[in-house]
Amino acid sequence: MVSSAPSNATPLCFSINSTPFNHSHTITSAYFSVVFSGLGLSSNLFALVVLAKTFHHTKSRSRSSFLLFLGGLVFTDFMGLLVTGSIVVSFHITHFNWRQLDPHCHFCNFMGMSMVFYGLCPLLLGAAMAVERFVGINQPFARSTVMSSSRACSTVAMVWVTAGCISLLPLAGLGSYRLQFPGSWCFLNISSKPLEMTFGLIFSLVGLLSLAVSFLLNTVSVITLLKVCCGQDRAQRRRDYEVEMMVQLILIMTIASVCWCPLLMYILKTVVSSLTVDPYSVLFYLRLATCNQICDPWIYILCQESRLRCLLHRRCCRAVSSTFATCFSGFVLRRGTRSWIPGSTSYSDVPF
């Protein structure tokens, strides 16, 4: 009789929310989860292939380090969708019972840790990329500020370790992970209790601070880049790659802010003000945050696609130059015109 009491005790991850949840089929549609996860996985996988090919042909050290950061970001998004998406899709397809499958909350804790880890990593990586670009743009001639590939890899690993340590805090007693509505995922317990509130504050403040650092440093970098590009020395220093990297970084920061700020602000407001948690709001904000993992790879894919068009245009112009003179300012000059110089690629007295 004494040994049966602990078996009937409700595990911590089920102590507030009881399963199965009463929910409508439209909210927890299996088709939505499958399409959402499939689109995100395929997008990130395609971006990884494009990044690997670009990194192989890159000679610039600053650009190669930036590509390593991007690769770490895309790889993290891919693994996050793979781990969490497989659990959510499995639930919607099989409708397994969490109490029977995970009576000791090990599986729920693993998913909660994954949600926190893969949620913080993109935000921290965005801040690290902003720091790298800030130093590279504002001190371009200092050799010590040029980040090597090994240092970039170390920074990405440090971000992973930091996010991993934060996700392990509930296992050490600071906060806890709970099953969330509609019963398909686990996340940190949003509560005003001291330990739960502390972990909620750590998660939300780290995310918001990362976004604030990214915004501040990216703003200064853009202003500096505009001064250089529009100043008197604009012809002495080519800034094509810096402009391209800053455009990508600004887009990454903007999408991360739009996707993550609602959830982070909601957690911060709820734990501080002791408000009642609305499960529908948490689910909506979480899905909005997950959109960041789908949008991140398309930032680089679209930017790379625009460059591929330029490269293809240049190669076409070179191919045409074997029959024609050159590709200049959008039109072609044939051999034999008065601007053609035999044995040279230069032209003079071009008629407009």
UniProtKB/TrEMBL annotation:
GO terms for biological process: adenylate cyclase-activating G protein-coupled receptor signaling pathway; inflammatory response; positive regulation of blood pressure; positive regulation of cytosolic calcium ion concentration; positive regulation of vasoconstriction. Pfam families: 7tm_1 (PF00001). This is Thromboxane A2 receptor. It is a multi-pass membrane protein. It comes from the Eukaryota. The lineage of its organism: Eukaryota, Metazoa, Chordata, Craniata, Vertebrata. The chain crosses the membrane at residues 30-52, 64-90, 110-131, 152-177, 197-226, 247-268. Residues 43-300 form the G-protein coupled receptors family 1 profile domain.
